[in-house]
Amino acid sequence: MGTQLRRLLATEVERARLHAGVSFSQLSDRSGIAPGALADLLEGRADFTVVDLVRIAGVLRVPVTALLPGAAGDGS
């Protein structure tokens, strides 16, 4: 995964997290992603896996596709 895609995914996940009103700690606990690993994902230092995205989407109660860049209808 390229750096740009990694950052775009991180931005979308963070946007969805904030919109859902879920704290970083809650997301970590409920998704089963360790805090350090989650921080690496959200700061663009690590690649998301499909499993990560499915777990995060489940916690945030959004479809996985809502976490993908361009899914918000931004015209891309």
Descriptive account of the structure:
The protein has 76 residues and is mostly helical. Helices cover 59% and strands 0% of the residues. The chain has 4 helices and no strands. It has helices at 3-20, 24-31, 35-42, 50-60. The longest helix has 18 residues, at 3-20. The two termini are 19 Å apart. The mean pLDDT is 91.
- Output the radius of gyration: 11 Å
Work out the helix count. Answer: 4
Classify the secondary structure makeup into a structural class: mainly alpha
Low-confidence stretches: none
Question: Biggest β-sheet: count, sense, barrel?
Answer: none
The shape, in one word, is: globular
Strand fraction: under 5%
Mean pLDDT: 91
Give the termini separation: 19 Å
What's a concise summary of this model?
This protein has 76 residues and is an all-alpha fold. 59% of the residues lie in helices and 0% in strands.
